[in-house]
Specification:
Elements: E1 2-6, E2 11-15, E3 24-31, H1 40-49, E4 62-66, H2 75-90, E5 96-97, E6 108-109, H3 114-121, E7 148-149, E8 169-170, E9 172-176, H4 185-189, E10 195-197, E11 204-206, H5 216-220, E12 226-229, E13 234-237, H6 242-246, H7 260-263, E14 270-276, H8 290-297, E15 302-303, E16 314-317, H9 324-331, H10 335-343, H11 347-352, E17 365-369, E18 373-379, E19 382-387, E20 390-394, E21 400-405
Parallel strand pairs: 3-16
Antiparallel strand pairs: 1-2, 3-14, 4-9, 5-6, 7-8, 10-11, 12-13, 15-16, 17-20, 18-19, 20-21
Helix pairs in contact: 2-3
Bound molecules: iron/sulfur cluster (3 copies) and FE3-S4 cluster.
Amino acid sequence: MAEVYNWHLGRPIAYVYPETHPQKQFAAVFNINRCIGCQTCTGACKATWTFSKGQEYMWWNNVESKPYGSYPKYWDVKILQKLDEAHQAAGKTAQWDPTTGEQAPYGTYNGMTITEAAATLNIGEQALGYLPPDNEWSAPNFYEDTSTKYKGGTLGLSPEGAALPVHQTWFFYLQRICNHCTYPACAAACPRKAIYKRPEDGIVLIDQARCRGYRKCVEQCPYKKSMYRGTTNTSEKCVACYPRVEGNDPLSNGVPMETRCMAVCPGKIRMNGLVEIGEDGTWAKDLQNPLYYMIREEKVALPLYPQFGTEPNIYYIPPRWAPRPYLRQMFGPGVDDAIARYTAPSRTLLALMQLFRATQTMIFRFEIEEGPLVFETEKEGQPWQMYDDTVIGFDAKGREVVRLSVVEPLHELPQERLNSI
Ligand code: SF4
Ligand code: SF4
Ligand code: SF4
Ligand code: F3S
């Protein structure tokens, strides 16, 4: 095992391969608060990549209703339970210390990752995992729109009941694709070394010519995003729509373009891009890159189950209405801070968030032109102002591709145009 640095966890972790980093990393922010569960993303991926024989059960993009829904069934409950049992067997606790670490409020994770748990328990595998039986893949939408009434207990609400803004009856949609992890468990697991991370953009792919269908990747990806295809005896996974990311898709005009599942989203919850990685593996500071700004500067978007240790690259703005202990288990200790920043967004964040789904072209840089004060109120006991700023997005070649104001312009039809269809 080598030692690699995981910034989500604020410490080095054990990983099978030594630390190497791509020049850029494919990443995205998903705003859970805005998702309407329409599954347009799911259908767009299916229609593009998994419409052939042997792929019927595959949903590289899926949207599940939490807390009950999951695809494959119970994937997160099962791996969390395994990790919990591993800690008990090793006599350890899985604690976060939010007060330490340079990446506050991420803090430091003092428990074991799935790789470290496998090494500690000496189970002869690279990472903790399991192979879901066929029936657990049988449908992507178990418990769709099923809410819970969660009243107490360690993960529950206050004994008095609902503690607004947390709702007593709740569910939320969790949008899932492959996380194109910095330290992919699928790649670590493959005995054939058939899985690789591209040096140019960090996209994780399975080499179909090398794969022999061993399914260790299916077993050890904690997010269950590698899927076996019986007709070819190989595994497949989300390919991050790489022709679009490369700018080689006929539609893309030679510049990187957002993926299919991102570009179709009617809820405007997704923003996809590439972030620059410095030579030391850290994200190069770039406050004008929308993803860098939201993830590293404001820390309003958080990784999914960072404690697994793969350093996933899809980030989520957590839902405001779900119980915080549940969300902290899912997104780590930065949840409260992220929700506070989303609830009372800074002037820059409010303007930047207008860019979600405003164009299919990947935005590499944004600028803000300041506008007038249009609204004042109090949020969380603090004064809060809204300005009608204009945000401008630029593509990979530095060309302006989109320009939007915070206040949506109102256009009134002239009298003679009314009912003129
Ligand atoms: Fe591999 Fe799973 Fe990470 Fe995707 S989410 S890169 S399949 S470990
Ligand atoms: Fe499917 Fe492309 Fe989205 Fe991956 S990025 S889930 S391949 S549409
Ligand atoms: Fe949610 Fe967008 Fe997918 Fe619809 S297309 S389910 S709004 S992420
Ligand atoms: Fe390797 Fe997974 Fe294929 S473990 S051989 S990539 S099925």
